Amino acid sequence: MGSSPSISELTKDSEEFRKYIDQLEKELDQRSSDRQEKLDAEVQKFIATNHYNDLRVLQEDEKHHFSQMKEFSLDSISKLINTIAKSLLPSADGGGSAGGTSGKTDKEAVSEAKDTTKSVLGASADVLIGFETLAVGRVLNVVSEILLEFQSSANVGYQSEVGAHEIGYGYQLFLSSAADSFQGKGILQGSQIVEYLFAYRLTHSISQAQAEGDVLLTKRLEDSLELFAKLQERLEEKLSNDEIDFDSFESMNKRYQAHIDEVHQNLDNLKRAGF
């Protein structure tokens, strides 16, 4: 954003701007008041279609995210991504709140899911590190795709969607997303602010894990390389169309490339170990 202050900086430094952001949050909360019902319906549809009757909710929460129109950043939503990851990673402790008001984690279910992951994939350090890379990358990919899609059409006003996203080996991310755009005030007068609201449920099913266990981890990691290559292509396209600024392009492209490099390292380690 060049010399322009970020929204997170303004909310810390200006009480008036913080009140403005608080009001926007309340308005989007009201407009998307059916988001939990939509998540309920999506989860029940998934169970009915796949017959995963042992599905358990590991974690659920909500998080607002603000950016200026040409700013593409995950800074204010990184806590949500990291919190979800803690409930996915076999090496991490429990989970927490992503900063919302309704965050809940079922630690017993999280522990059981992690034991199942080790049972299905094996307890090899190379395998578990590879799964961690896969899981974090999948969440990062899902959130990035939604932000990019909403940003492309933010000028058309309020939008919402709900979907089920496979993480792999029994894990599923159900995500309800809403977005709206507003004209900035004060120092951001003349710029456009985009607001997002994510409500999610991270679930796990042992029967789903067993059904997905036949897909090699190396195959899933290779598939993730294609997904992130496509994200980089979309970033380049948005930069060339002047839809994002160069700072946003550079920081996000660097983040995606770091994940790609990590996946390549995981694949090398797994192949050397005979997987």
UniProtKB/TrEMBL annotation:
Protein name (database record): Uncharacterized protein
Q: Where is the composition biased (Gly residues)?
A: 93-102
Superkingdom, taxonomy of origin: Bacteria
Question: Per the record, which residues fall in region Disordered?
Answer: 92-111
Name the source organism. Answer: Streptomyces alkaliterrae
Keywords of this protein's UniProt record, alphabetized?
Coiled coil
Its taxonomic placement starts with: Bacteria, Bacillati, Actinomycetota, Actinomycetes, Kitasatosporales
Q: From the record, what ranges are coiled-coil? A: 7-41, 221-273
Question: Does Coiled coil appear among the keywords?
Answer: yes
